[in-house]
Each structure stands twice: as structure tokens, then as C-alpha cells.
Amino acid sequence: MTKLSKKFFALLLVGIMVFALAGCGNPAKETTKETDEGKEELIVVGYAQVGAESDWRTANTVSFQSTFVEENGYKLIFDDAQQKQENQIKAIRNFIQQEVDYIVLAPVVETGWETVLGEAKEAGIPVILSDRMIDVSDDSLYVAWVGGNFVKEGNDAVEWLDGYLKELGRENETINIVTLQGTIGSSAQVGRTQGVEEKLSEHPNWVMLDKQTGEFTQSKGQEVMESFLKSYDDIDVVIAENDNMAFGAIDAIKAAGKVPGKDIIIIGFDAVKAAFEAMIAGDLNCSVECNPLHGPRVAEIIQKLEKGEKVEKIQYVDEGVFPADTAADIIDSRLY
Ligand code: AHR
Asked: Which atom from ligand 1 is nearest to the alpha carbon of 53?
């Protein structure tokens, strides 16, 4: 090879590498559309978020806000509904008015969506459900759903409790349970309550003393737990339908002079980082995972739709169960 052709070859190689890296390193580029003038156009996504009620929700918001950014070809219009369905309906109508390209909805509750999602369909805007499900007879009102299997999470919590009571040699004792439920009518509450109850019937010596909503917040969880502790002096287990309510329950139990994690077994859902800290401290016995990192998953659905590809309608995310004795080894690898 001559000096000149070597130089040409080296330059060509560098060119190929730069081209390849640009293609592999930034897959989101594929999502940008071109205007008639050939300029790149951002894909506009309206996200109707539930609120900011829990650590899980904050992680979910961050996941969307860090995925749907200009560098990835998106403009995100984010709306926090403060746990109110009417605010989400208003937000969706605003998104329709603004002619967004996609609407993402994490529904506060399951029912009452037909009219507004019918309006989105009429306007030709695809709706992607994330996290919670809706209860509608016409499933053409949304193109896809991605989230956790809440019924399975409830089943998993009870299965863990069963094994733990056996470990403690308490399998034949009467076990008194109270449940701090999530927002009534949300699929996270409906599914987890159902998942717990279907397994509970397999244990005739377990008694569900009471259940009440703590709205998925730490403060309401604490308030409800305080009232449970006043009404019942023999609570063995608290099932809190999210970690933040479990943290509230821990505070209430400590204030009542009892030892959380020992006098009263506590199970949470979500497996947020703070739950691992509470497990390491001995306050929380187990957390059943609910993964909030849906931003990239929804982006993948949008990418496929942009290319005219088919997407799977129902997409469950894999989730684990984390007992306290695994917490110290796992905490550093948690992403939320
Ligand atoms: O829908 C998911 C649930 O909503 C999470 O378990 C909870 O923390 C959140 O508020």
C-alpha cells in the first residue's frame, strides 16, 4: 500500500467508525421525524402522571423526564395530577388541544376513562398506558400497556409471609393481619388486595382484622396505622400496599412503644432504596418489587409505532421479592 492509499484507508476507517458509533450510541435518533423542509422534528409526548405520592412515583417521573429529552428526539409535556382523576382528564384534553403525537397515561383509578380516551382516539392520538391499568370494554382506546403484575405481587407477599412464619415456627398460631391499602380503585390497590386475599383463604388460622386506605402516602399510612393500633392490641402483621405507607406504619408502631419488624411483621411493596435501608435497620421484613422505570419501555413502544411496527398490547415487567436478610447485599445495585 502506498503512503497516500494508507492515509486514505485510515481516514475511511475512521469515517466508518464515526458513522457506526453515531448509529449505535444514539438509537433515540431514530425516533425523530422529518418536517416537509427536511428538518428534524421532535416527537411530542404528553404524560398524565398520577402525582408525587411516593418514592416509587418520584422514580417513575425521573425515568420519563430523563428519557423523553430533546437529545433523544422528544419534547415531553408533563402533568402532575395530584392523585386526582379529574386533573388527569383535564391534562389529556389539553394534550389533545396541543395536538401532541402520543399521550401516556398512568391512570389514578381504573374506571371512568371511556369519554376522554374516545376523544383522544377521535383526534388520532395514540394512548399508551403505563404503570396502572384501566377498566374499559373497548381496548382500542389504548395501543399498549406496560407495568407490573399487581395480583402476582399480592400473591408473592403472602407466599413470603407463609415461608417466614414457618421459619419462625409460628405456622399454626393465629396470625392477625391489618392492611394499609393504596388509593381505592387504582389497579395497584385492586390487584394487590386481590392477590393477598386469594392466598389468604389458604390459611384458615390467619385473620384479616382490618383494612383501610392510606392513599399510598407515608403520612396517611402512619395515621391509619395509629388508629389500627388503638383498635387492636394483637396485630401480628402489617401488609402495606406500598413502601411509603410501611414507613408511616413503622413510625406509628415505634410511637406506640412496639418494635417494628419484631413485635409486628411488616411487608411493603415497591422495593425502593429507602425500603432496603429500613430492612437493614431491622424495621421492615420484606418488600415486593414494583418496577417504576417505565420511561425507556414506553420510548421503545413509541419507536416501534413510529416505524409502523406492531407492539405487544400487554407488557408485564419482571419483578422480585426482597426479604430483609438479602437487603445488605442488594442495596447498592438498586436503581431507585
Ligand atoms: O401504581 C404503582 C404504585 O403507585 C406504587 O406501588 C406506589 O408507590 C405508587 O404510588
From this structure: 10
